């Protein structure tokens, strides 16, 4: 069993999809081992998305991710990273498979409802960015 990190992004929170998204996540067999309702500061978002600093959409991404509250969570399941990325679907909801979270709840490539870590290493880094050890159960 292992872990991934997710955020329900500001668009999905604003559109009232927190409950439906958590339902999809738990129905797919993920166990929530840490969770909080929070908002990223400018500095948080710039650091969290540091790998995208040189990308043309970086400014938009940071502006969007700081625009409202999010839900951050650590999820546990066998093969967590890969299975969670399959559950959320392609970055652009237009390309996302039927039944995936982004297909159902995302509005655009930028405002795409959820984040999912892309490797075990990044899952650990991102999880500890948001949660102290005593907040993980
Ligand atoms: P995350 O799970 O959020 O990391 O998405 P991803 O791994 O599917 O995509 P990637 O890491 O390449 O990009 C990170 C985030 O940047 C995406 O989820 C989008 O929110 C945003 N993003 C990516 N490409 C674009 C783009 O062309 N325009 C805009 N505005 N945002 C983008
Ligand atoms: Mg990514």
Q: Could you characterize what this model shows?
A:
The protein is an alpha+beta fold and about 140 residues long. It is about 40% helix and about 20% strand. The chain is built from seven helices and four strands, in the order E-H-H-E-H-H-E-H-H-E-H. Strands 2-3-1-4 form a four-stranded antiparallel beta sheet. The chain is globular, with a radius of gyration of 14 Å. It binds guanosine-5'-triphosphate (GTP) and magnesium ion. Guanosine-5'-triphosphate (GTP) binds next to helix 4 and strand 4.
Total domain count: 1
Second rung of CATH, namely the architecture: 2-Layer Sandwich
- CATH domain topology: Alpha-Beta Plaits
Low-confidence region ranges:
none
Quick summary of this structure?
This protein is an alpha+beta fold and 137 residues long. 40% of the residues lie in helices and 19% in strands.
Question: How would you describe this structure in keywords?
Answer:
single chain; 137 residues; Alpha-Beta Plaits; binds magnesium ion; EC 2.7.4.6; phosphoprotein; ATP-binding; NDK-like_dom
How would you summarize the topology of this molecule?
Layout: E1 2-8, H1 10-14, H2 18-27, E2 31-38, H3 42-48, H4 58-65, E3 70-77, H5 80-88, H6 101-105, E4 114-116, H7 120-130
Antiparallel strand pairs: 1-3, 1-4, 2-3
The chain binds guanosine-5'-triphosphate and magnesium ion.
Guanosine-5'-triphosphate binds at residues 52, 57, 60-61, 91, 109-110, 112, 115-116, 118.
